């Protein structure tokens, strides 16, 4: 058995492990008061919303695994195919400029990443893998598994919010000494941001990068609307459960009294903009009480809670994003159906005056 200790992004001196329970409690209470604040502002808004980052409690992680395994959710399979078919090519491209640190923002279960790690190993690339994830549970599982079956892998798992990671520490200072960096942001995770926030986020990433650093980003492309609608409304009901689970989380962690049978999963896809949005619709007029907020929230019949956006990009949009955030596209890879793309972006070189 291989046990890897996670580094905490917030305070890098504290190691999170099951033997450090009191610190774990601090983090949980700290996180849940932030959770309470975000639920208050979301459900208190005229157009109600919840933040998709809160989907991923233990049950949410589990349900997301089920979504990825569902036949309708093509994203994971496409990116898997890209890495399977073109992994060595990608590995060559990102390792051409010498040894590097491979920072993965939101590593999840690392199923696809393993293909790339193996491709890198097969060409003798010199790198340290640094998975960063908000779920300590997923990160620990991933790290232990990788450590057990890939003993050659140099690894530095970091527990935390990658947004926080990017705006803090040495990730922020591109002048600082340190290894070359390749940042991975896969699975079309960027799609959870609206256009302006996506650009801001990419600029933030760009601000941490130096000349020879690279960003490997996975983006889901626009395609037949039926394919996209099915991916966010799978017949097995995992996506529905995934959305409803956030209400369960509010009930459990904040003392809410949501009755899940009174809400309906209602995803929408707009082919004109490429926005796939998930909502929970209140089936009736109702009032929900949340003890931690000591507050009632009223719902009209048919009123929606906006849960998540999963942006689907046109080729024009991916180009506008890279340009707008100050990157130049070095390589683009596609799956055989052209459903998905993984791209290598480099910081744009400022022309010398
Ligand atoms: C993990 C954000 C890429 O938006 O496709 C899957 C999350 N939500 N089904 C996505 C998700 C509903 C997923 N990302």
How would you portray this structure in words?
The protein has 353 residues and is an alpha/beta fold. Helices cover 38% and strands 24% of the residues. The strands form three sheets. Strands 1, 2, 3, 4, 5, 6, 7, 8, 15 and 16 form a ten-stranded mixed sheet that branches. Strands 9, 10, 11 and 14 form a four-stranded antiparallel sheet that branches. The protein has a two-stranded antiparallel sheet with strand order 12-13. The longest helix is centred in the first third of the chain and has 23 residues, at 21-43. The termini are far apart. Bound molecules: N,N,N-trimethyl-histidine. N,N,N-trimethyl-histidine binds at residues 67, 75, 187-189, 191-192, 232, 239, 242, 308, 310.
Task: Show the helix and strand layout.
Elements: E1 6-8, E2 15-16, H1 21-43, H2 58-69, H3 74-95, E3 100-105, H4 113-122, E4 127-133, H5 136-149, E5 154-155, E6 158-159, H6 162-167, E7 180-185, H7 195-207, E8 214-220, H8 225-231, H9 238-254, E9 263-265, E10 268-270, E11 275-282, E12 286-290, E13 295-299, E14 304-311, H10 315-324, E15 327-334, E16 340-347
Parallel strand pairs: 1-6, 3-4, 3-7, 4-5, 4-6, 7-8
Antiparallel strand pairs: 1-2, 8-16, 9-11, 10-11, 11-14, 12-13, 15-16
Bound molecules: N,N,N-trimethyl-histidine.
């Amino acid at each position: 058995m291989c046990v890897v200790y996670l580094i905490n992004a917030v305070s890098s001196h504290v190691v999170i492990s099951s033997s450090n329970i009191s610190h774990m409690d601090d983090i949980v209470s700290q996180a849940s008061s932030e959770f309470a604040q975000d639920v208050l502002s979301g459900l208190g808004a005229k157009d109600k919303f919840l933040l998709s980052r809160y989907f991923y409690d233990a049950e949410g992680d589990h349900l997301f695994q089920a979504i990825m395994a569902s036949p309708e959710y093509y994203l994971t399979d496409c990116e898997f195919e890209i890495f399977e078919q073109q992994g060595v090519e990608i590995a060559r491209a990102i390792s051409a400029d010498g040894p590097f640190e491979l920072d993965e923002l939101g590593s999840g279960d690392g199923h696809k990443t393993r293909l790339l790690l193996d491709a890198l190993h097969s060409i003798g690339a010199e790198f340290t893998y640094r998975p960063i994830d908000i779920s300590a549970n997923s990160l620990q599982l991933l790290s232990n598994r990788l450590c057990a079956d890939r003993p050659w892998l140099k690894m530095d798992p970091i527990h935390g919010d990658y947004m926080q990671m990017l705006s803090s520490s040495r990730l922020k200072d591109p002048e600082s000494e340190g290894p070359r960096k390749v940042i991975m942001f896969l699975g079309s995770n960027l799609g959870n941001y609206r256009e302006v926030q996506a650009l801001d986020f990419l600029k933030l990433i760009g601000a941490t990068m130096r000349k020879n650093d690279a960003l490997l980003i996975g983006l889901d492309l626009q395609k037949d609307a039926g394919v996209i609608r099915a991916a966010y409304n799978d017949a097995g009901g995992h996506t529905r459960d995934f959305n409803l689970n956030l209400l369960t989380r509010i009930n459990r962690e904040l003392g809410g009294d949501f009755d899940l049978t009174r809400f309906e999963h209602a995803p929408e896809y707009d082919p004109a903009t490429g926005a796939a949005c998930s909502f929970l619709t209140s089936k009736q007029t109702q009032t929900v009480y949340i003890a931690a907020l000591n507050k009632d929230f009223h719902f009209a019949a048919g009123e929606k809670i906006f849960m998540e956006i999963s942006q689907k990009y046109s080729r024009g949009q991916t180009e506008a994003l890279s340009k707008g955030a100050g990157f130049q596209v070095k390589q683009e890879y596609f799956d055989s159906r052209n459903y998905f793309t993984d791209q290598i972006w480099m910081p744009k070189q400022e022309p010398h005056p």
